[in-house]
Amino acid sequence: MPDAPRISPHDGKPRLRILMGADTFWPEINGAASFIARLSAGLAERGHDVHVAAPSYSNKKLGAQVEEHEGQKFTVHRIYSWRWYPHPWLRFSLPWRIRHNSASIIEQVKPDVIHFQSHVVIGRGMTIEGSKRGIRIIGTNHFMPENLLEYTLVIPPFLTKRAIEAAWKAANRTFGRAERVTTPTRKAAEYLEAQTSVKNVVAISCGIDAHNYTPDMQPKTDNLIVFLGRVVEEKQIDKLIKAFATLDSSLDARLEIVGGGDQEARLKLLAAQLGVTERVTFAGYVDEAYLRNALTRASVFAMPSIAELQSISTMEAMASGLPIVAADAMALPHLVHDGENGFLFEPGNVAQLADRLTTLLSMPHDEILKFKQESLKIVAAHDIQRTLDTFESLYRGEPVDADGMVQQGA
Fold first, then answer.
1. In this predicted model, which residue has the larger pLDDT, 211 or 373?
2. How far apart are CA 36 and CA 307, in angstroms?
């Protein structure tokens, strides 16, 4: 018997004009950019008039233009930007022009709500100009200042602490203008509340459409470990390669690293030094079809990162029915339940990471099947439709509790 059609609590309500403020967006590849595209597409599919304000990827293409992301078309307002060369992909809108740019876009769109996804530049401009016009403002934090410091050439190490403090003060000012503030997980919410004066932060999963992924529940004929994400220092992929190099040769394991970034050349050199070049594949930047196929082919997914406020790539792996080995850091324990759908390891502990990988790769199929089924069960709670329902409620000023649950009767 087919499932009954899903009914949203917002069915029949007036559609909204929503303006997203995004310091990072396509063609940049990262968790925040993916979330903004997925959220905007989902809202557009529900009939809302969605607009995204984002840095240009070419200053020859500025202003409002219709773009297609995640299978949906909506308007993207591309703002004049510069490339930040210490960073492998980051472009930024000019801080001294952002209030003027924000005011112009707001006057053009006349939104019912502004939802900014970062406090750094565009979020600051949107919140200042939106507040002056009495527009409802919702903010989401995907940001950890520590993650960008490695790309900052002008800040010497002895000033790092002061730079982080300054970044959080700026975040405090911008998020302080929002009616409600959200983060992807409760851990991330607690982190934001500890660093700023913002309180009552709502935990709302970035969400995922599990139907886009294809689990393979049959016994695997090879032992393929997959990592998916940006190839940058904070992901600690070097620890994964070092652990992989110590695995018993009888496992006949292979490692595939899907994603690109500034650490790729260094990691290839490391693989060569450890004698595993022939068994490690660097796929680089890939399209969605390749990404999903890699997850279907994999035996185990590994996420050694220490800076995940949620980890969309881990959710994608879980939606592909994979057991997970992940660092016991930040929000990853929300997704990886040790001994149930995978194993956690002490961050940076190469020997423990290797041990966890060996355990999963050596399991009989009936045991590994339980881990795979548990991954599918856990990720079901992160359905994108629930995420859309919750943000719609926030946009309308309806009550939402701290765990992102829409209050009945709203």
1. 373
2. 19
